[in-house]
Design brief:
binds phosphoenolpyruvate; 9 helices; TIM Barrel; alpha/beta; 8-stranded parallel beta barrel; binds manganese (II) ion; about 240 residues
């Protein structure tokens, strides 16, 4: 289970999410400090200073950090403060970035491209792998289809296919996948049942006040419930011996 806000916003917000993670035995926290926004006028993140502050607070609590790297020049400066470099959907085929991440000895989580095929996601992973970095995680986060009723179309078909075609851990992001807060829990659990190795979702103390993606972000009560349902579902899936 990985949770946290879409964007890292303030010290108070970081402390609140870290405390939420600790209380619910969630060991990894997500959050963006470099945000790829559709509009250049939207909040674009606190940058490296935000990451340093986050790292200080999270490491004290024993919480690991998953955060997006947007360009090659950020890899080195972020290095001391991240546990997992996230490659965002919009950078899924940024081959320069993938090449450079291949030289790093830290985990890389690659999100599927907005219009990316399963094969293209695997090839993106191959870029990192061929550079010598085998610490890879694949993430299904929904693709763009003709459907407009949800933000994206969460392709759970991809999970068993990715699991069959590679040895890599595969996780599901139901928050970006459906984009509607009320439906995040069921898609998260569907992700578990589809064979995923983990779930990453957005949470915030007051989602309505989040700087980004509030509409798909769970509050802490919802997140606490979901985290325990996810664990129960993993246990149940093992019982089924489904995969
Ligand atoms: C995010 O995880 O907040 C994010 C920007 O995701 P994606 O790259 O999948 O849109
Ligand atoms: Mn987001």
């Amino acid at each position: 289970v990985i949770t946290g806000p879409c964007s890292i916003e303030t010290e108070e917000q970081i402390r609140a999410v870290v405390a939420h993670c600790v209380e619910n035995d969630i060991k990894m926290m997500r959050g963006g400090v470099f945000k790829p926004r559709s509009s250049p006028y939207a909040f674009r993140g606190l940058g490296l200073d935000g990451l340093k502050l986050w790292h200080e607070i999270a490491s004290e609590a024993g919480i690991k950090i998953v955060t997006e790297v947007m360009q090659t020049s950020q890899i080195e400066e972020m290095y001391p403060y991240v546990d997992v470099y996230q490659v965002g959907a919009r950078n899924s085929q940024n081959f320069n970035l993938l090449d450079e991440l291949g030289k790093v000895d830290k985990a890389v989580m690659i999100k599927r491209g907005i219009s990316g095929t399963i094969e293209e996601l695997l090839q993106s992973a191959e870029y990192v792998f061929s550079g010598g970095n085998e610490k890879l995680i694949l993430c299904e986060r929904g693709i763009r289809t003709y459907e407009r009723a949800s933000r994206n179309t969460l392709d759970l078909n991809a999970i068993p296919i990715l699991k069959a075609k590679s040895h890599l851990p595969v996780i599901v992001d139901p928050s970006h996948g459906i984009g509607i807060r009320a439906y995040v829990p069921q898609m998260a659990l569907a992700g578990v049942m589809s064979g995923a190795d983990g779930i990453i979702y957005e949470s915030h103390a007051v989602p309505e006040k989040a700087y980004s993606d509030g509409q798909q972000t769970l509050d802490f009560a919802q997140s606490a419930r979901l985290a325990s349902w996810i664990r129960e579902s993993f246990a149940m899936r093992k019982g089924f011996d489904l995969l």
